[in-house]
Amino acid sequence: MPWSRPQMAERLAREFQDGWIVNLGVGMPTLIADVPFGDREITYHSENGVIGYGPVAAPGQEDLQLVNASGQNVTLLPGAAIVHHADSFALIRGGRMDVTVMGAYEAAANGDFANWKVKGAKGGGIGGAMDLAASAKRVYLMLEHRTRDGTPRLMARCSLPITARGVVTLVVTELGLFAPTGEAFAVRDLAPGVTLDEVRAATACPVTE
Amino acid sequence: MARRSKVVADFDAAVAGIPDGSTIAIGGFAMPGVPFNLVAALLRQGAKRLTCIANTTGGAHKPRMPDIGMLVENGQVAKVICSFTAGTRASDVLPFTPYYERGEVEAEIVPQGTLAERLRAAGAGIPAFYTPTAVGTELAEGRETRMINGREVLLEYALPVDVAFIRAYQADEAGNLRFRRSQRNFNPLMAMAAKLVIAEVEEPILPAGAIDPDDVHTPGILVQRLVKIPPPPEGLWPVKREAR
Prior knowledge:
The structure holds two protein chains of two kinds. Helix content of chain A is 15%, strand content 28%. Chain A is of the alpha/beta class. Chain A has a ten-stranded mixed beta sheet. In chain A, strands 7-6-9 form a three-stranded mixed beta sheet, with no helix packed on it. By secondary structure, chain B is α/β, with parallel strands linked by helices. In chain B, strand 9 and strand 10 form a beta hairpin. In chain B, helix 5 crosses helix 6. The model of chain B has no long low-confidence stretch (mean pLDDT 96). Chain B: InterPro entries: 3-oxoacid_CoA-transf_A, CoA_trans_fam_I, CoA_transf_BS, NagB/RpiA_transferase-like. Chain B: One of its GO terms (molecular function) is CoA-transferase activity. Chain B: Keywords: Transferase. Chain B: It comes from Neoroseomonas oryzicola. Chain B: This is 3-oxoacid CoA-transferase subunit A.
């Protein structure tokens, strides 16, 4: 049984260590903000300068002046701070992010990934992805293992224009949790009932145990 | 010593005299901090051949608020400089996109942190800097990189601005500004980078000295024009985005 998106978020968040500063990107990664961390202290940073935000505000309780990277009206936790964009990205480039979690179109065994430009498009959407990818201590990706037409998104080398070279630490898909090793993806965990053969059939490069 | 008030009567007065060919930076990230009323006034004012700098060209969400895409649709824009020239989803078609694809407007796509730092550098008298961001990508092709402390870094130039449109929470008559929550975003940097800074302000404009100097986010020496945003519907305020 492949993981649901909340299960993918929960599995990836299990990798977070106590005390980490975590940047969550647009889309699927926002699900991680709903994962309970128990005794672990996790601080969320959003590229628009919000440090220490909490869950999305309840309906009717939104502060329209306060959003996360996805534009959701979030709440602030005690100890939160606000900085301007240059300081926010100084924190990123300065190496303060223990991990950034991003969505992606493609992840490659050599650690490259692509998430800003689709095939044939003239424009793209970079946002903070290139800054985060270049300078966060770890880059985790959350993506579906294949496109809607069945094409693998995990491959030896990206076919789309890349966001950064050789930076990906971990990739979670509905099939499992994987680490790029250069020429292959190593399995760190599999969703319940998913076999190595199924993963290999869905991946465009070698998959190792 | 006399102190002249920087308060102007309305949004049309605030954008008066902006010439064709200007480079205009527009603050905001998602809804917070976007100077919707000044953008709406610029649509009426009609300056052409503009270069517009902002995080996005707008129009990806409902309800749609005044954005660069509308200035493009109004034939006022020659070039945009943004971190998004397409939406965050592959399926998004922005109002800006068809104009860009037909070659009617130019676009320069800049990583968001590089955009913020280029604005900061322009305001800080730093002509250029090196950054690790975008090294190894299509954006770095044909451009100068160097190895510094064992890391490949890319040369980026400061991004000076003629006019900055700012939205602030509070201001005093001296032009000192305070922002609230994530409304701050690019606004202080665009104010630093610009020759003419025009701020729309949410709270009634205070007498000089009413904001504690320790609480000022953007000093008034950078700001030339202030205008109070009237309550809705006359004034435009952030609204909740519709779910997608």
